[in-house]
Design brief:
- The structure holds 2 protein chains of 2 kinds.
- By secondary structure, chain A is mainly beta.
- Chain A has a domain of about 70 residues: RNA polymerase II/Efflux pump adaptor protein, barrel-sandwich hybrid domain (OB fold (Dihydrolipoamide Acetyltransferase, E2P)).
- Chain A has 1 helix and 10 strands.
- Chain A has a 4-stranded antiparallel β-sheet with strand order 3-10-8-5, with no helix packed on it. A 4-stranded antiparallel β-sheet of chain A has the order 7-6-4-9, with no helix packed on it. A two-stranded antiparallel ribbon of chain A has the order 1-2.
- In chain A, a hairpin with a 2-residue loop joins strand 1 and strand 2.
- By secondary structure, chain B is of the alpha/beta class.
- Chain B has 3 domains: about 200 residues, 2-enoyl-CoA Hydratase, Chain A, domain 1 (Alpha-Beta Complex), CATH 3.90.226.10; about 190 residues, 2-enoyl-CoA Hydratase, Chain A, domain 1, CATH 3.90.226.10; about 35 residues, no CATH class.
- Chain B is elongated, with a radius of gyration of 26 Å.
- In chain B, strands 10, 11, 12, 13, 14, 15, 16 and 17 form an 8-stranded mixed β-sheet that branches.
- In chain B, helix 12 packs parallel to helix 14 and helix 16 crosses helix 18.
- In chain B, about 40% of the residues lie in helices and about 15% in strands.
- The chains are: A mainly beta, B alpha/beta.
- At the A-B interface, strand 2 and helix 1 of A face helix 16 of B.
């Protein structure tokens, strides 16, 4: 009657909670969880996939927080992406016409 | 004589209508591994019990050449029948008729049978197999969906509502199943999504197959939208029949009592939990060692498997089981398992099904992803659901019950009616290792041999707190029982709760942390 998949596996993973190491199995979701990366205000990543329509700033340029820096076409909209901090453009990692995925590093500041 | 002729005419009309979209379309349906809408209905209901209504309903669309099209039954079959002799209502979308697309009359047939189901207090089964809105009918089609969603909500908690996804179910159509109690999916046949792969590709440039986006496995394992996953339609119908054998017919009655049977002898309740508190076991074996005939129907088996929910019987009557599963993620509570447990508690509470909770958990799962995914809000759902539930509530603490997890898992403090603990139960704010490291931090760090001191202090804490008698001394636990006495104690607890009146305050409704 019992299905094979319900049988206990012999090898377990270890999950440590409050200094006790439990032997158990992991879910796919738990195994695939991404490590947390702290937000770096000097790096701008794409929040949507899309096409770079226009780049307003230049490398080496001094910029002020809130200035428009490029236009990303996504979700059938022209999204104006603004400068997040006062600073200098260190590098631009895209060119006009580039089709970029989500979480792609677009611009670095210093 | 004239009547005979008219009867012949009726038979001809019936025959034509029952062919749906015609032979070719039926052949195509069968080639996809799918049954026809009528065969699906007959596979669930008692033999020859189905009575169809609105067979001759016709759509009234006039635009885009629709006035020249005759659509049999307007793409959906509705009616009533019996299940184990009890009344039941059902609709099945017919993909062979313009892809089972939903127009005004199609939706009208569905809402009519839904109204019947509510009025007659009988369960409703909806078989979904539809390309979506009938675009030629414009806003009439959207109105139809809205009328269905409204009735799903109205019926919720009054009659059981079951959705069976046996084909595409996309766009707005997905929200009717989402509002019902149980969703059944079949591998390679069910497809559910709000926006399909084509739209995602055109808007976001991301490519994905229908199966990977919203196939049966996705909803059974990742989203939790589906409650039952089957490999074929036949297996799916068996699951539906099994579920219907457990659920009460409406919120004014209890489940149908059947003859009670002792659990099967191969499940030895005192021999399942390992001696080492760090080692796992399958909590479903404990449930099988408790319920009648060891017959346990698990719900959402593949999603958030660190919690187990499902139906069994005790003394011949349906009981809802909630349990931590040490076999998966050590049985922790997290975002998904909280969601899963909380909704199940509300189902049982709505339909007069007593709840039995088996507790063995190290607490909530620590993690940045969990905190950011809202484990506070989701975890609170369990507290809310248990506190609000007025059906008989029994808890058995099998092994560990630490911290917030102890409170959440139907503790005395949330008004469990009976809390029992096995002799090996440990009830504390956290496990002995963590507690000793905090309480005796100074002693440990200042000792000549910190490791030896740590071990000693862990042992000291274990002996003092890692037992059920501290909680029992305060009356938080009603009885410490032997594992072999578990079934007897649960049976008696449910028996004496027969006329329970929880005396909840009057209100329109509460505001659960949705």
């Amino acid at each position: 009657m019992e299905k094979k998949e319900n049988e206990l596996p012999t090898e377990f993973k270890t999950l440590s909670i409050w200094d006790r190491e439990y032997k158990t199995n992991f879910t796919k979701k738990f195994e695939k969880r991404k490590p947390y990366i702290a937000v770096d205000p000097l790096k701008v990543y794409s929040f949507l996939p899309g096409t770079i329509q226009k780049i307003i700033v230049k490398e080496g340029q001094q910029v002020k927080k809130g200035e428009p820096m490029l236009i990303l076409e996504s979700m059938k909209m022209m999204n104006i992406v603004c400068v997040p901090i006062d600073g200098k453009v260190k590098s631009i990692n895209v060119k006009v016409g580039d089709n970029i995925p989500k979480n792609h590093l677009i611009i670095e500041f210093e | 004589m004239a009547l005979e002729k008219k009867i012949l005419e009726l038979q001809k009309r019936r025959e034509l209508a029952s062919m749906g979209g015609g032979e070719k379309a039926i052949e195509k349906q069968v080639a996809m591994g799918k049954l026809t809408a009528r065969d699906r209905i007959n596979a669930i209901l008692d033999i020859d019990s189905f009575h169809e209504y609105d067979m001759f309903v016709q759509h009234d669309a006039r635009d885009f050449g629709m006035d020249k099209k005759e659509l049999h039954g307007d793409g959906v079959i509705t009616g009533t029948g019996t299940f184990n002799g009890k009344p039941i209502s059902i609709f099945a979308q017919d993909f062979t008729v313009v892809g089972g697309s939903l127009g005004r009359m199609h939706a009208g047939k569905i809402t009519k049978i839904m109204d019947h189901a509510l009025k007659m207090r009988m369960p409703l089964i909806g078989i979904n197999d539809s390309g979506g809105a009938r675009i030629q009918e414009g806003v009439n089609s959207l109105a139809g969906y809205g009328e269905i969603f409204f009735r799903n909500t109205l019926n919720s908690g009054v009659i059981p509502q079951i959705s069976v996804i046996l084909g595409p179910c996309a766009g707005g159509a997905v929200y009717s199943p989402a509002l019902t109690d149980f969703v059944f999916v079949v591998d390679n046949i069910s497809k559910m999504f709000i926006t399909g792969p084509e739209v995602i590709k055109s808007v976001l440039g991301e490519e994905i197959s229908q199966e990977d986006l919203g196939g049966a496995r996705v909803h059974a394992e990742i989203t939790g939208n589906a409650h039952f996953f089957a490999k074929s339609e036949i297996e799916c119908f068996e699951q539906i029949i099994k579920l219907l054998s457990f659920v009460p017919w409406h919120n004014g009655v209890k489940s149908t009592k059947i003859e009670t049977k002792e659990p099967r002898s191969e499940y030895k309740i005192d021999n399942i939990i390992p001696d080492d508190p760090k080692m796992p076991y399958d909590v479903r074996d404990i449930i099988r060692a408790i319920v009648d005939d060891s017959d346990f129907l698990e719900i959402q088996e593949l999603w958030a498997a660190n919690a187990v929910i499902g139906f069994g019987r005790i003394n011949g009557e349906t009981v809802g089981f909630v349990a931590n599963q040490p076999l998966v993620l050590a049985g922790v509570l997290d975002v998904d398992s909280s969601d899963k447990i909380a909704r199940f508690i509300r189902y049982c509470d709505a339909f007069n099904i007593p709840l039995v909770t088996l507790v063995d958990l190290p607490g909530y799962l620590p993690g940045i992803d969990q905190e950011h995914a809202g484990v506070i809000r989701h975890g609170a759902k369990i507290l809310y659901s248990y506190s609000e539930a007025t059906v008989p509530k029994v808890s058995i603490i099998l092994r560990k019950a630490y911290g917030g997890g102890y409170i959440a898992m139907n503790s005395r403090h949330l008004r469990a009616d009976f809390v029992f603990a096995w002799p090996g139960a440990e009830i504390a704010v956290m496990g002995p290792e963590g507690a000793a490291n905090i309480i005796f931090r100074k002693e440990i760090s200042e000792a000549a041999d910190p490791e030896a001191m740590r071990k000693e202090k862990v042992k000291e804490y274990s002996e003092k707190f890692a037992n059920p008698f501290v909680a029992a001394s305060k009356g938080y636990i009603d009885s410490v029982i032997e594992p072999l006495e578990t079934r007897k104690y649960i049976m008696h607890a449910i028996e004496v709760s027969e006329n329970k009146d929880a005396g909840m305050p009057r209100k329109k409704h509460g505001i659960p942390p949705f």
